[in-house]
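User: Quick sanity check before I run a bigger batch. Here is a single chain. Can you write out its predicted 3D structure?
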Amino acid sequence: MNVGVDGLDPSSIQLIGTAVTPAVMVSGCGILATGLDNQISRITARMRDMVREWRTLPAGHARRSLLREEVAIMDRRHAILARAIGFTYAALLSFVVTSLLYLLRRSVAVPEGLPVMSFSLGVGLLGSTAVLALASLRLSRRAITLEGAELFRDGQPGGPPEA
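Assistant: Done. Predicted structure follows.
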């Protein structure tokens, strides 16, 4: 055993550093999951508001059709973000497994590539989460465009008054 500064074995310090890197990713996943959960909650609340509004409008009202379209978009966004949060938690689990595998290497024969595979899986899952978040943003833009089209049907604000 090689003793370094402060009486610690340098390989132990390296092992701790290697185990901590996935732990930082776990923390990042937790923050990301919180943000996704907030988005999902806001979408759920907005959908309930739109359905409530839809119920109060008389049959055949033009806004009912718009609300139905927007609720369909929100439903797709909700499904996308639910999948994204699932990927985020799977990534978190992958990083926890990576840390455990690195720590177990002191006492158990862990194949060299196993922790790297586990870490890589987590990174891939986070990449998938990012792609899904971008898809959700695109759908959000579609819903806003629908609202804007209804709001500005008679012309954009600041334009010349129509005669």
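DSSP finds three helices and no strands in the chain.

User: Great, the batch can go ahead then.
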